[in-house]
Amino acid sequence: MAEETIFDKILAGEIPADKVYEDEHVLAFRDINPQAPTHVLVIPKRKVSHFTEFPERPAEEAGILFQRAAHVAKELGLEKNGYRIVVNHGPHGQQSVGYLHVHILGGRQLSWPPG
Ligand code: AMP
């Protein structure tokens, strides 16, 4: 069984989060340490700990997560100027929370390549 994370607790309502979108499949909330004027995290309600689990999961799960991320970015008004979608995995990716989350970063000019 995967270790309980802070995002499990947010999903369970045990700790607060600044929610921006919720439906039966996903929850989206503002990052507590924003790296851009708009920085939102989208998590699947059916827990996936790591991006690397997707090959073993039904394809709809990844599809719905990214579809909802696009929907949330549009609702946040980011579509016109653009934004970045990020999924960090493992130590080199600097994943710090073991509950899969899609970062939506927007509201400023982002640089490339990432650090
Ligand atoms: P990652 O490094 O990809 O695992 O990203 C984890 C993100 O979760 C970081 O950007 C943190 O700032 C964010 N984070 C950690 N705790 C919370 C929290 N309680 N509420 C919202 N965002 C959080």
Using only CA atoms, what is the Rg? 14 Å
Instruction: Give the helices and strands as they follow along the chain.
Output: HEEEHEHE
**Portion in strands:** 15-25%
CATH secondary-structure class: Alpha Beta
Task: Please name the fourth-level CATH homologous superfamily.
Answer: HIT-like
Discrete helix count: 3
Mean pLDDT: 97
Please tell me the total number of domains.
Answer: 1
How far the N terminus sits from the C terminus, by CA atoms, comes to 33 Å
Class by alpha and beta content: alpha+beta
What name does the CATH topology carry? HIT family, subunit A
User: Which small-molecule ligands are present, each listed once?
Assistant: adenosine monophosphate
Strand order of the largest sheet: 1-2-3-5-4
**How much helicity do the residues have?**
10-25%
The name of the CATH architecture is 2-Layer Sandwich
Q: What does the model show?
A:
There is one protein chain. The chain has a 5-stranded antiparallel sheet with strand order 1-2-3-5-4, with helices on one face. It has one domain: HIT family, subunit A (2-Layer Sandwich), CATH 3.30.428. The protein has 3 helices and 5 strands. The protein is 23% helix and 22% strand. With 115 residues, it is of the alpha+beta class. The N and C termini lie far apart (33 Å). The structure holds adenosine monophosphate. Adenosine monophosphate binds next to loops.
